[in-house]
C-alpha cells in the first residue's frame, strides 16, 4: 500500500509534473508494449487511436497480430482498476514495475482549434487536435506527440507542437557503433604484451593466454588481427576475469582449406568461414554491402557440411518478401515455386558453386545441380510459426527487413543440431517504419555478442566486380 502511495505522490502535478506522451496508432502497432516504455511519464491515447486499432485487428498479418496484442494489453490495464478511469490508470502494477506513470484514455469529445486548412475528418488531424487540447489544459507539462509517421511529426512541428519518433526499440542511435565482430590490435601488441603471454598448442592450433587491460575490451568469439611483419589472426575463446585466451584461425585463404571450391579472398571472409565451419557456433550473423560474399560463403559452408561432413541433413533458406519496386501480383504454384522469384541470389550463387573445373560436361553438371537442389529447401516466413528444425542449416537472407519480434520467432525455430545464419545489409531496409537502429538484424547482433555459441562479422570489401564496388561507393 505504501508503494502505491509513493507512486501516486510522484505524479502529483504540484510535486513533479512529468511529460504527457500522446501515442499515434503506428507506435502501438510497431511495439505492442509501448505503453509501458515511458517510465515515470504519463501516456495518453486518443479515441481515434483506438478506432484505428479496431480497423487493423482483422487478418493474419504482423500488423493485425500486433493490433490484437495491443487491444489485449489495454484490456488488461483497464480491467485492473475498479474506479473511474478519467483520472488515469496506474501502470506500475500492469507493467510489472516497468512503468510508474499513468495511462489516460480520451473519455470526452475534444473540439481542437486547428487551422482552417486541415480537414477534421482526417484521423491524423483529429489526433493533432487532441495534442492541442492537452497542451491548453496542462500548460505546466510538456505534451509530446510520439509517431513513427515522419509526415505526422513534420505537420505537428509546423503547428508548434512537440513531436518525436519512438526511440525505445532502437538498439543504437548510430549504426557506426554497431559491433563489427573484430578488433585491430595495436602495432606494439607483442612488445607490450610479450611478457604476459603464455602459449600452448591445442588441436594443431596455437593458443595464447593474455593478461592486462586489453582483456576487459574483448568478447568471446571476437576476432583479433594485426597486419605487421608478424601478422596475427585469432579468435577470443575464453575470458576469465583479467585474463583471456585467444586461438589462431584456420586459413581459408589457402587452396588446401577451400570450402566447396571457394577460398576466402580477404580477411573478413576468412573470419566468416571460421564461424560458418565451426560446429560449436550455432548462430552466425553476417553484415555487409552487396557483393561482399555473404550468400556465397554461407552456401559453400552449408553444402560442404551437408554433403561432405554430414553434419546437417539439408539447407533451408528463407527471406522476407518485401518488393523493391511495384508488386507483380500473385504467383502460381507451390510454396517453393512462389518463393522462386525471390531467390534469384540463391540461383546465382549455386551457378558459381556448381562450376566444374574438369571436362565432365553438361550432363555431370546437371546431375550435380539436381543433387544439390534436393538438399536445399526454400521456405516462406509466413509458415514458420510453430515449426521446429532438427539438424538443419537455416539461412535467413535479407534479415535487415525483419523486426526484432519476427527475428525472435525465426531463431526460436532452431531445434537440436541446427545452425542459423542471418545475412543482410542494414543500409538497404525496405520494411516501413524500420530503420538501421531498430532492425531485427541490428537487434540480434547486439544481443548475441559475447555468447560463446554465436559469432558476428561485418564484411568490408566487395568482391563482385570493379563496377559494383565503384557503384556502391559513389551512388
TrEMBL record:
<dbReference type="GO" id="GO:0005524">
    <property type="term" value="F:ATP binding"/>
</dbReference>
<dbReference type="InterPro" id="IPR002716">
    <property type="entry name" value="PIN_dom"/>
</dbReference>
<comment type="similarity">
    <text>In the N-terminal section; belongs to the PINc/VapC protein family.</text>
</comment>
<dbReference type="Pfam" id="PF02562">
    <property type="entry name" value="PhoH"/>
</dbReference>
<comment type="similarity">
    <text>Belongs to the PhoH family.</text>
</comment>
<dbReference type="InterPro" id="IPR027417">
    <property type="entry name" value="P-loop_NTPase"/>
</dbReference>
<dbReference type="GO" id="GO:0005829">
    <property type="term" value="C:cytosol"/>
</dbReference>
<feature type="domain" description="PIN">
    <location>
        <begin position="19"/>
        <end position="154"/>
    </location>
</feature>
<keyword id="KW-0547">Nucleotide-binding</keyword>
<dbReference type="Pfam" id="PF13638">
    <property type="entry name" value="PIN_4"/>
</dbReference>
<protein>
    <submittedName>
        <fullName>PhoH family protein</fullName>
    </submittedName>
</protein>
<dbReference type="InterPro" id="IPR051451">
    <property type="entry name" value="PhoH2-like"/>
</dbReference>
<dbReference type="InterPro" id="IPR003714">
    <property type="entry name" value="PhoH"/>
</dbReference>
<dbReference type="InterPro" id="IPR029060">
    <property type="entry name" value="PIN-like_dom_sf"/>
</dbReference>
<keyword id="KW-0067">ATP-binding</keyword>
Amino acid at each position: 500500500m505504501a508503494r502505491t502511495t509513493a507512486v501516486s505522490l510522484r505524479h502529483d502535478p504540484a510535486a513533479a509534473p512529468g511529460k504527457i506522451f500522446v501515442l499515434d496508432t503506428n507506435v502501438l502497432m510497431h511495439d505492442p508494449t509501448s505503453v509501458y516504455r515511458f517510465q515515470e511519464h504519463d501516456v495518453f491515447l486518443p479515441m481515434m487511436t483506438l478506432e484505428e486499432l479496431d480497423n487493423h485487428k482483422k487478418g493474419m498479418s504482423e500488423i493485425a497480430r500486433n493490433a490484437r496484442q495491443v487491444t489485449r494489453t489495454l484490456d488488461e490495464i483497464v480491467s485492473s482498476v475498479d474506479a473511474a478511469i478519467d483520472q488515469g490508470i496506474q501502470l506500475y502494477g500492469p507493467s510489472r514495475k516497468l512503468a510508474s506513470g499513468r495511462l489516460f484514455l480520451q473519455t470526452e469529445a475534444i473540439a481542437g482549434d486547428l487551422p482552417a486548412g486541415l480537414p477534421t475528418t482526417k484521423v491524423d488531424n483529429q489526433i493533432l487536435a487532441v495534442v492541442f487540447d492537452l497542451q491548453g489544459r496542462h500548460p505546466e507539462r510538456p505534451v509530446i506527440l510520439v509517431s513513427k509517421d515522419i509526415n505526422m511529426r513534420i505537420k505537428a512541428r509546423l503547428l508548434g507542437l512537440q513531436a518525436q519518433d519512438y526511440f525505445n526499440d532502437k538498439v543504437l542511435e548510430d549504426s557506426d557503433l554497431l559491433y563489427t565482430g573484430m578488433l585491430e590490435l595495436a602495432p606494439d601488441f607483442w612488445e607490450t604484451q610479450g611478457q604476459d603471454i603464455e602459449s600452448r598448442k591445442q588441436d594443431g592450433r596455437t593458443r595464447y593466454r593474455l593478461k592486462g587491460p586489453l582483456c576487459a575490451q574483448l568478447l568471446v568469439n571476437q576476432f583479433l588481427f594485426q597486419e605487421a611483419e608478424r601478422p596475427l589472426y585469432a579468435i577470443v575463446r575464453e575470458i576469465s576475469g583479467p585474463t583471456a585466451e585467444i586461438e589462431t584461425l584456420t586459413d581459408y585463404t589457402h587452396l588446401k582449406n577451400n570450402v566447396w571450391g571457394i577460398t576466402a579472398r580477404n580477411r573478413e571472409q576468412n573470419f566468416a568461414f571460421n564461424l560458418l565451419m565451426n560446429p560449436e557456433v550455432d548462430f552466425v550473423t553476417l553484415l555487409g554491402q552487396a557483393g561482399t560474399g555473404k550468400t556465397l560463403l554461407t552456401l559453400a559452408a552449408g553444402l560442404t557440411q551437408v554433403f561432405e561432413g554430414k553434419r546437417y541433413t539439408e539447407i533451408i533458406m528463407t527471406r522476407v518478401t518485401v518488393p523493391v519496386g511495384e508488386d507483380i501480383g500473385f504467383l502460381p504454384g507451390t510454396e517453393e515455386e512462389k518463393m522462386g522469384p525471390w531467390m534469384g541470389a540463391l540461383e546465382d550463387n549455386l551457378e558459381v558453386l556448381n562450376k566444374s573445373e574438369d571436362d565432365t560436361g553438361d550432363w555431370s553438371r546437371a546431375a550435380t545441380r539436381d543433387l544439390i537442389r534436393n538438399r536445399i529447401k526454400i521456405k516462406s516466413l509466413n509458415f514458420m510459426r510453430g515449426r521446429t528444425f532438427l539438424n538443419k542449416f537455416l539461412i535467413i537472407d535479407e534479415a535487415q527487413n525483419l523486426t526484432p519480434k519476427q527475428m525472435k520467432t525465426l531463431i526460436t525455430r532452431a531445434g537440436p543440431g541446427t545452425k542459423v545464419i542471418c545475412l543482410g545489409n542494414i543500409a538497404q531496409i525496405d520494411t516501413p517504419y524500420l530503420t538501421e537502429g531498430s532492425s531485427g538484424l541490428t537487434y540480434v547482433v547486439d544481443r548475441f555478442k559475447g555468447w560463446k555459441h554465436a559469432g558476428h562479422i561485418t564484411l568490408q570489401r566487395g568482391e563482385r566486380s570493379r563496377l559494383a564496388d565503384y557503384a556502391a561507393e559513389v551512388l
